[in-house]
Amino acid sequence: MVHRKIAVIGIGQFGESIAKNLSKKGAEVLAIDKLQENIERVSDDVSLAVAIDATDKKALLSQNILEFDAVVVAIGESFEQRLLCVALLLDLGVKRIIARCGGKSQRIILEKLGVKELWSPEEEVGAIVAERLLNPSVMSYLQLPDDYRIVEMLTPKKVVGRSIQDLNFRDRYKLSLVTIKKEENVTVNNMVTSVYHVVGVPGTDYVINSTDRLLLFGKNKDIDRFIEINE
Predict the structure, then answer these.
(1) pLDDT of 18-48, one tens digit each?
(2) CB-based burial of residue 37 (10 Å sphere; 0-12 exposed, 13-18 middle, 19+ buried)?
């Protein structure tokens, strides 16, 4: 894996999560926030955490910001501060900027500035919650272009006890079974908990269990149809 240096500016709920997960994956992470209490929360989990004003050019340059492969601007409470920070990073010539946006108007403004990588955690979380309310069996999903997606879902009742060959996902449902996650009970601190492990590429004789989770790829309408038929 290529070693990456990434700065995360704005250590709120989402910024903290991004910084910690990047560190877990082996990246060298610089966490930046103007509040000392936020910095103290992540200081043990990242390479370096500093309390500075990210709209101050000298402060950013003091952290060698131009040496980083990417800078994530996760400032959430003030769009003005986020905008000033992004404009400064663009002016400095930072290699790659990923910025948080909250809604269509903010997206338009940031795109006009020249930011190509934008993400909206509120919209993404809202979409996932809506999906879970409409389809409780869908645990998570990845929306792809052209109305395709990959979903992780609980095994529908009518699928339990049937083999992959019998189900014939591709011809019967126009879906591809990516893999299966199998439940395993483990004991941690004298407490039994469930963890899921990827089976890999299951054979056609694999019989699906009620506790299995299916990872399926296909059109949205075909996934919805599969759920409706087999619930």
Answers:
(1) 999 999 988 999 999 999 999 999 999 999 9
(2) exposed
Query: What is the CATH classification number for the domain harbouring 81?
Result: 3.40.50.720
Contact 71, 96 (CB under 8 A): yes
Number of domains present in the structure of the chain: 2
Expressed as residue numbers, the domain containing 82 is: 5-121
Q: Global pTM? A: 0.69
Strands (E), the chain: 5-9, 28-33, 48-51, 70-73, 97-100, 117-119, 138-144, 148-154, 176-188, 191-198, 213-219
Q: Are residues 73 and 97 in the same domain?
A: yes
216 shares a domain with 148: yes
Q: What is the pLDDT of residues 185-214, one digit of tens each?
A: 877 777 777 889 999 999 999 999 999 999
